[in-house]
Design brief:
- The C terminus is likely disordered.
- The chain has an 8-stranded mixed beta sheet, sandwiched between helices. Strands 22, 25, 26, 27 and 28 form a 5-stranded antiparallel beta sheet that branches. Strands 19-21-20 form a 3-stranded mixed beta sheet.
- It is built from 19 helices and 28 strands.
- It folds into 4 domains: about 230 residues, Rossmann fold (3-Layer(aba) Sandwich), CATH 3.40.50.2300; about 45 residues, no CATH class; about 230 residues, Up-down Bundle (Rhopdopsin 7-helix transmembrane proteins), CATH 1.20.1070; about 80 residues, no CATH class.
- The radius of gyration is 56 Å and the shape is rod-shaped.
- Belongs to the G-protein coupled receptor 3 family.
- InterPro entries: ANF_lig-bd_rcpt, GPCR_3, GPCR_3_9-Cys_dom, GPCR_3_9-Cys_sf, GPCR_3_C, GPCR_3_CS, GPCR_3_mtglu_rcpt, mGluR.
- GO terms for molecular function: G protein-coupled receptor activity.
Length: about 750
């Protein structure tokens, strides 16, 4: 080859594929009709990828062809995600154990790479198959071989069973029928110009043309390559030999046509006067364009390399029992490379596997441990499989699907009317609203009767308003959150309860002040005990809560917010914290505590004032309800259903306690014991009403002007009163009476020593 370089003689090869030959600084005059090894290396990588062989072994001959070819394969494979498990070389000098050791090295340590990519000459390919057969390892791995194996008979001869399934590649070719016709008509008599043909003849017919001992003599004319028993098959490189000859001839023809125009093919005379240089001929060869023997164009690139497509073969057993290379696909270079494989032509039940690690299941990422090996790590919690190697958290408003392949947006959730969580508190509050409305109707209808008039109607109506609002708060709390609903929640929750407990605080405070006044009450009436004063005090107390709620709305605008505490949905809530909700209820809790204290202090007033006992029972029950609510609410672990339901039920139960404890006795008398709801003329000898308060006993009287309905006759007070269940009530709207809880108040000018009791029915 260097001689050609020195003499500037162009050379065209039909089979040399080494990548080094593309180096024009060393091999300037070298061209070839076959592509260099880098192209078949790319084809082999694409085949491995197509079979999902991402972990392979490589085997190469020492020397330029094997080392450069396998080196190019490993370079492209690394970029393509195909890893090499073991890279072995066949030394130039081999012995009987060389190939056995190579096979053992490939299989040792339970190597999971079951594919071997080979850049090995045909003799060593044959030796590999022979060693596999000897070791009985014929099905241990699959072979992907380069064009040095191609579609040749020699590597597989006598080892067809071992070679079955082998994948080989070869620059695209076809059988040249014209060559077969020519070659089969050759005999040792008409082809004596070829000194090797006689040797070929003896090998094909297993005979001798000379008197060789132990071999039969060839009969000459009786032998023919057309004989069906002759194992004749066209060599795979025949096409490329023909193409290289035609390419050289075409280059010479083009050069002569250019250098010697008008000579009408009489080039010899022209060349006598104009000898041509090899460098000039090289230029014409590189520009040759002709149709090859298989119909594909024969062209050269700037390095003199042939541009060819590749045929892909599999060595298969045919139904007849014979073995043959079957074309299963092709690799096409047309600007970009593309691979086409006909899966139906493959003679495999299942494509052999050559991997380092098993594929990961759904929702598992590959954690690489080196090369192409990995561990499968499941994506955690709210993570999805971003790519095969990484898990990533889903956005706050999303959750991974069952396979953890994508993030699905969570549905927005709030309590639906069909939910049991919605139905129970609404039903409870609905019944409460109906009961409240019924009590209100009864009070309005019997508004002028003694029992209703004597119970402090104004505060009772405020109480009923608070109870009604408390029940209504549940509907607001359970409605779909919006800016308006969130504002109503903040105001309604505090104000509704405040109406109840402000009215009760006003009542209990009034009773306490009256009975705690002692002897002073005989001289001066306690302040702010009139009905109008009581209403004003109650409204002032409620106003504090109302103004506080408005202030809260000013500092923290009502709005909705999405919570992602749950795994299956987005919770639509009002924008407020648990602490803010408790702070808004703190004022009501303060009033409840005060009211409870007053109820406790007035628990031992005379029997005639037993409404104070009902109030005390109401407050004790309320405290129990709220003490039970607080741990449930804060222990809900941000479960919005428990939070909202516990709050609704707490408010509704508090309203129910007030409704039944304070109003049920009065409704019972009005509806079921109307005979007690009448006025009686009672002459009462006013005795000291003993009330043990703070370990003291007071003589309690109401030192007031003589109220309407009081008659003094012969030193005895006669007063028309409504007496019910030992409880004596007076109409709270009577400005002349300050003791609406049934106090009989003598005028201070009476002679208390002459008072006697007499009662006559009116």
């Amino acid at each position: 080859m260097y001689v050609h370089y020195l003499l500037q003689i162009p050379q065209i090869s039909y089979s040399s594929t080494s990548g080094d030959l593309s180096d024009k600084s060393r091999f300037e005059y070298f061209s070839r009709v076959v592509p260099p090894d880098q192209y078949q290396a790319q084809v082999m990588v694409e085949i491995a990828k197509s079979f999902k062989w991402d972990y392979v072994n490589t085997l190469a001959d020492e020397g330029n062809y094997g080392e450069r070819g396998i080196g190019k394969f490993e370079e492209i494979a690394k970029k393509s995600g195909v890893c090499v498990s073991r890279s072995l070389k066949i030394p130039r000098s081999v012995n009987t154990t060389t190939f056995t050791n190579i096979i053992n090295d490939i299989l040792k340590d339970n190597n999971t790479a079951k594919a071997v990519v080979m850049f090995v000459n045909e003799d060593n390919c044959r030796s590999i198959l022979q060693a596999l057969k000897k070791m009985n390892k014929t099905k241990e791995f699959s072979i992907l071989a380069s064009d040095s194996w191609g579609a040749k008979i020699h590597p597989v001869q006598d080892h067809e069973t071992v070679a079955e399934g082998t994948i080989t590649i070869l620059p695209k070719r076809r059988v040249i029928k014209e060559f077969d016709y020519y070659f089969r008509n050759l005999t040792v008599y008409n082809n004596q110009r070829n000194p090797w043909f006689s040797e070929y003849w003896e090998t094909i017919f297993n005979c001798s043309l000379t008197n060789t001992p132990y071999r039969k003599r060839c009969t000459g004319m009786s032998k023919s390559l057309w004989n069906p028993d002759v194992n004749y098959r066209q060599e795979g490189l025949v096409q490329f030999v023909i193409d290289s000859v035609y390419a050289l001839a075409q280059g010479v023809h083009d050069m002569l046509s250019y250098e010697c125009p008008g000579t009408h093919k009489d080039f010899s005379r022209c060349l006598r006067y104009r000898p041509l240089a090899g460098e000039e001929l090289l230029g014409f060869i590189r520009n040759v364009k002709l149709n090859g023997s298989n119909g594909d164009p024969v062209v050269f690139d700037e390095n003199g390399d042939g541009i060819r497509n590749y045929d892909i073969f599999q060595f298969q057993r045919l139904p007849s029992g014979n073995f043959e290379y079957v074309r299963i696909g092709e690799g096409v270079f047309n600007g970009n490379f593309s691979l086409t494989l006909n899966d139906t032509s493959l003679n495999w039940e299942d494509i052999p596997r050559s991997i380092c690690s098993e594929p990961c299941s759904f929702g598992q990422a590959k954690k690489h441990t080196g090369g192409c090996c990995w561990m499968c790590v499941p994506c955690q919690g709210n993570e999805y499989l971003q790519d095969e190697n990484n898990c990533a958290p889903c956005p706050k408003d999303s959750r991974p699907n069952a396979n953890k392949s994508i993030c699905d947006r969570l549905p927005e959730f709030h309590l639906e009317p069909s939910s049991l969580w919605f139905i129970l508190p609404v039903a409870f509050s609905g019944v409460g609203v109906l009961c409240t409305a019924a009590v209100l109707v009864i009070f309005i209808h019997f508004n002028t009767t003694p029992v209703i008039m004597a119970c402090g109607r104004e505060l009772c109506y405020l109480l009923l308003l608070g109870i009604f609002l408390s029940y209504g708060t549940s509907f607001v709390m359970l409605a779909k959150p919006s800016v308006i609903m969130c504002a109503l929640r903040r105001l309604g929750l505090g104000v509704s309860l405040c109406f109840i407990y402000a009215a009760l605080l006003t009542k209990t405070n009034r009773i306490y002040r009256i009975f705690n006044s002692g002897i002073k009450a005989m001289v001066k009436r306690p302040g702010y005990t009139s009905p109008k004063s009581q209403i004003l005090i109650c409204i002032c107390l409620v106003s504090v809560q109302f103004i506080g709620g408005l202030t809260w709305l000013g500092f923290e605008k009502p709005d909705t917010v999405q919570h992602y505490d749950q795994n299956d949905y987005i919770v639509l809530k009002c924008k407020s914290s648990q602490i803010a909700t408790v702070i808004s209820l703190f004022y009501n809790i303060f009033i409840i505590v005060l009211c409870t204290v007053y109820a406790f202090k007035t628990r031992k007033i005379p029997q005639n004032f037993n409404e104070a006992k009902y109030i005390a029972f109401t407050m004790y029950s309320t405290c129990i309800v709220w003490l039970a609510f607080i741990p449930i609410y804060f222990g809900a672990n941000h479960d919005f259903k428990i939070e909202i339901i516990s709050l609704c039920m707490c408010v509704s139960i508090s309203a129910t306690v007030a409704l039944f404890c304070l109003f049920a006795p009065k409704v019972y008398i009005v509806l079921l014991q109307p005979h007690k709801n009448v006025r009686q003329a009672t002459s009462t000898s006013i005795q000291s009403a003993n009330m043990k308060n703070n370990s003291r006993t007071y003589g309690v009287t109401c030192a007031l002007p003589l109220p309407t309905g009081i008659l003094v006759q012969n030193g005895t007070i006669h007063k028309e009163v409504a007496q019910t269940d030992n409880a004596v009530f007076s109409d709270s709207m009577e400005d002349t009476s300050s003791c609406d809880e049934g106090l009989s108040m003598p005028v201070p000018t009476l002679n208390m020593n002459t008072v006697t009791e007499s009662t006559t029915a009116t």
